[in-house]
From TrEMBL:
Keywords: Membrane, Ribonucleoprotein, Ribosomal protein, Transmembrane, Transmembrane helix. It comes from the Bacteria. Pfam families: DUF4178 (PF13785). Residues 68-187, 277-414 form the DUF4178 domain. InterPro entries: DUF4178. The chain crosses the membrane at residues 443-464. Signal peptide: none annotated. GO terms for cellular component: ribosome. It comes from Rhodoferax ferrireducens. This is Ribosomal protein S27AE.
Length: 500
């Protein structure tokens, strides 16, 4: 695929080293020299050196400068890269130049990708602190839900850029999401704040040419000694923000960099995953690798009963991350949504992309054990407020913390499919859940078994009918006779960063 046919390009020598610096877009005002890392600003046809950019961290992305592709029938080329840091880790945004010379962005979003273009606001945007997590607001006539409000800072940059915030200086980044699957980012690193509107994309759909060859990637990973026990720890994914030591199971925070003092937390009572880390399997026609595992516990407010479930974090270089969730109610495959479903005022139902989901359960969740690598800074003891919705086999989950709101969407899958995907036919019985029970799976059941089940149900019905007339003044009555589900089965996961 040819690169965009830019009507006018500009080249000038770098004020720092004399190497050529190119500007393909008239909207670009900054560039980082690829030879000496000088940060230069363009004023007309004059380049001025304003500093030196920090070295890029290797994110092992398949993307690189000069990759070309197609979006909505218009060609584009990646000409710049921005690397940001926030409280839970880092993320990357790629600056793209379209055929007409205008700018666009290809950015990470909860382990996936979003393609967005700058938007002009009809009215002045309010200060960042006016956006409250979970609240709804209207911008340019569209309704959005506030998903994230974070303080971020620029770590490094490369290539040609429309604007460049001061290196290492914190500023606000607000993210809003719509029911139509759109994400609106408000960047308070410039004044007035810049905004961009985008939607989820698959790298394959962008018809990308010039991707970094997978075989040329640095596969050996980073290695350091565990700060708890001293055993060697290897980080396979450069995007990882947390990792566990394979020897002592300590949970290690990577957000400060391996060269800095690493924070760690000891973990006892390990939970062994049924699917080993590093395993590969094909789900929904895509090859995935298991890179992370976490056990979580849930409880309903006012109820002492707890329930648990497991989540496997799966990775594919072009698709990003998804979750394979294991609960007593069955297996499910879910991933974070780009948009924000619309929930009714009562909270009893939610609508997303034309489908309506009914509330199944509300509960609090806590991460209790972690293994492997994660693209967000997962911590033992992380807590969220969750709501699970369903529509047949389709699932929708809401998680909310003090910093952000995250929705995920997915569907149930049969345990036999999980066993086949990861070549675990020998563990079929261990993988079976309620989805494989005789009555739900349609297997043959003897007449005597059916009669026994009928009699048991009849007795239970009589018991519950008597309990409904229970007088708490003279009898020991339960406050509720309802069935307790496993919770978490829809893929509610520890929030991995709303925008990035």
């Amino acid at each position: 695929m040819a690169s965009p046919s830019i009507q006018r390009a500009y080249r000038a020598p770098c004020p720092g080293c004399g190497a050529p610096v190119d500007f393909l877009s008239a909207q670009s005002s900054h560039a980082v020299c690829g030879y000496c890392q000088s940060t230069v600003v363009r004023n007309g046809e004059t380049l001025s050196r304003i500093g030196k950019m920090a070295e890029l961290f290797d994110d092992h992305s398949l993307l690189q400068l000069q990759v070309s592709g197609q979006w909505k029938s218009q060609n584009f080329t990646l000409v710049g890269r921005l690397q940001y840091k926030y409280a839970e880790g880092t993320w990357t945004e790629w600056h793209a130049v379209l055929t007409d010379g205008s700018s666009a962005y290809l950015s990470e979003d909860n382990g996936s990708y979003v393609f967005s273009t700058p938007q002009l606001s009809r009215a002045a945007l309010p200060p960042a602190d006016r956006f409250r997590i979970g609240a709804t607001t209207t911008i340019n006539g569209k309704s959005f839900s506030v998903a994230s409000n974070q303080q971020v800072s620029l770590l490094s940059a490369q290539g040609e850029l429309p604007h460049l915030p001061a290196l290492g200086v914190p500023f606000a980044m607000v993210e809003l999401r719509s029911a139509a699957g759109e994400v609106l980012s408000l960047d308070y690193g410039v004044q007035p704040p810049a905004s961009s509107l985008g939607s989820a994309v698959l790298l394959d759909d962008l018809q990308l040419v010039g991707l970094r060859a997978e075989s040329s990637k640095e596969e050996k990973g980073r290695e350091f000694s565990c700060p708890s026990c001293g055993a060697p720890v290897t980080v396979a994914l450069a995007s990882s923000k947390s990792i566990t030591c394979g020897s002592c199971h300590s949970l290690i925070d990577l957000t400060s960099g391996i060269g800095a003092e690493l924070r760690h937390a000891s973990q006892d009572e390990p939970v062994q995953p049924l699917i080993a880390l590093g395993s590969t399997g094909k789900l929904q026609g895509v090859d995935w690798q298991v890179v992370g595992f976490q056990h979580r516990m849930g409880s309903t407010p006012g109820d002492d009963e707890q329930f648990g479930w497991e989540e496997y974090l799966l990775f594919n270089a072009k698709r990003g991350f998804i979750f394979l969730v294991d609960s007593t109610e069955g297996w499910s495959v879910v991933k974070p949504t780009t948009g924000a479903p619309e929930m009714t005022g009562s909270g009893q139902s939610a609508t997303y992309l034309g489908s309506r989901y009914q509330l199944k359960e509300s509960y609090n969740a806590e991460t209790t054990y972690v293994l492997g690598e994660f693209y967000w800074q997962v911590q033992r003891g992380q807590k969220t407020s969750n709501r699970d919705f369903s529509s047949g086999k389709s699932l929708l989950s809401l998680e909310q913390s003090a910093q952000e709101v995250t929705w995920s969407v997915g569907s149930k899958i049969d345990s036999a499919l999980v066993a086949s995907a990861f070549k675990l036919e020998g563990k079929k019985e261990l993988l079976k859940r309620s989805d494989a029970s005789p009555l739900s799976s349609g297997l043959n059941v003897s007449l005597s078994t059916v009669l026994w089940i009928f009699l048991i149900l009849l007795v239970l019905a009589l018991v519950f009918s008597r309990r409904s007339n229970c007088d708490p003044n003279v009898q020991n009555c339960s406050s509720s006779g309802s069935y307790r589900s496993s919770g978490g089965s829809f893929g509610g996961f520890s929030t991995g960063g709303g925008h990035k």
